[in-house]
Amino acid sequence: MKISALNSFDISLEDVASDKSISHRFAIFSLLAESKSKASNYLLAEDTINTLKIISKLGAKVSRQGSFVSIEPPKKILSPNEVLDCGNSGTAMRLMLGFLSGVEGFFVLSGDKYLNNRPMKRISKPLNDIGARIFGRDDANLAPLCIESKSKLKGFNYKSEISSAQVKTALILAALSSDSNSYFSEISLSRNHSENMLLAMNAPISVSNDGLSIAIQPLKKPLKPLDISIPNDPSSAFYLVLAAIILPNSKICIKNILLNKTRIEAYKVLEKMGAKIEYKFYDDSFESIGEIYAQSSSLNSVEVCENISWLIDEAPALAIAFSLAKGTSVLRNAKELRVKESDRIKAMVENLIKCGINAKELDDGFEIIGSKPKFAVIDSFGDHRIAMSFAILGLICGMQINDSDCINTSFPNFKNILEKIGAVVED
């Protein structure tokens, strides 16, 4: 993908990518329902379509008309005679590990070359400790992973040392299949979509006031089905909001966007840097949804070291904001970036240096001195968020991005929206 520089734009959008986290969870949680679950505006990206294929192989009846998806759960989960392909999605693999650990049968989870090198022991070890049978490379740390379930899981009291919605959700799903009550806690609040959705399904869970502790009872009967409209993804929208902020004389409004507090921290960082951003909230049954407005702004440096789990997906795009801000900006406590779809710390720093930006790797983040970027040919490392981040920087100085097809895993109409705001994009 080659991006040419753009002068300015003023646009209102409703068709950014649907929320990926909620789309994955809708598909997987539908397996727990008593009857058909329905969702409009389901994300039709490679990752989330793979999740629909997986639950189909497990016996669910999946119907899709455009972005409207209905899922009828099977009476009994099937043990398929083929590999369950998670593609590039760590969310799908980790959540399915939790769900399938409590299901009788034999299952194999695998993915692409990038996913199969991402760490899974943070899920497989606590699950094996409560009676799951998960096998794989590097002592069940690397996929392909095999799950052979023969007996009930044991109830547990687990405190996670990392703030991870994937770990939390996997353990909750396992606890619903356990033989006694379970308790999960984490050191700081991670994304809470799973709790919100499961509570809406009348799951036997209770959440503490601060959200850090969850009590889970074994599931005695199927749950209430979901019937939802999935909002737009704030992580995907962040690239477009950033574009409006860094380009002169530009404005944007993004509608029907998820405004859960654990998902808009990166926007709050931009506000601290001087960005002009406003929010309009709507009422919703289980999530905060609304609109975001942003316009051209001068950015100043910032140091970010808190609520990292709330902005981990947007960190590469924040690095672009840092590169255009006045002064030296720093991101710390973000070592998790090293084990995402790529080593995002290394990828961002290497590519920013190619663009003439003074950037330095830290063990747990990066330090970036803002200056004027230049055209470069950069490598996405097969990571959709690296590719999209440098596409936005390309609106300032032009950019050639190698291996940009990875964008289709999460934001298949990204190129179309860039063209809608006036950018010239060549394959």
Classify the oligomer: single chain
Number of helices: 13
Largest sheet: 4 strands, mixed
Terminal residue distance? 5 Å
Percent range of helical residues: 25-40%
Overall radius of gyration: 21 Å
The structure class reads alpha/beta
What is the average of the pLDDT values?
96
* Widest beta sheet: strand line-up: 22-23-1-24
The count of strands amounts to 24
Strand content: 15-25%
Provide tags for this entry.
4-stranded mixed beta sheet; 24 strands; 13 helices; 427 residues
Describe this structure in words.
The structure is a single chain. With 427 residues, the chain is of the alpha/beta class. The protein is 30% helix and 25% strand. It contains 13 helices and 24 strands. Strands 22-23-1-24 form a 4-stranded mixed beta sheet. α8 packs parallel to α12 and α10 runs parallel beside α11. It is globular. The chain starts with a strand and ends with a strand. The model has no long low-confidence stretch (mean pLDDT 96).
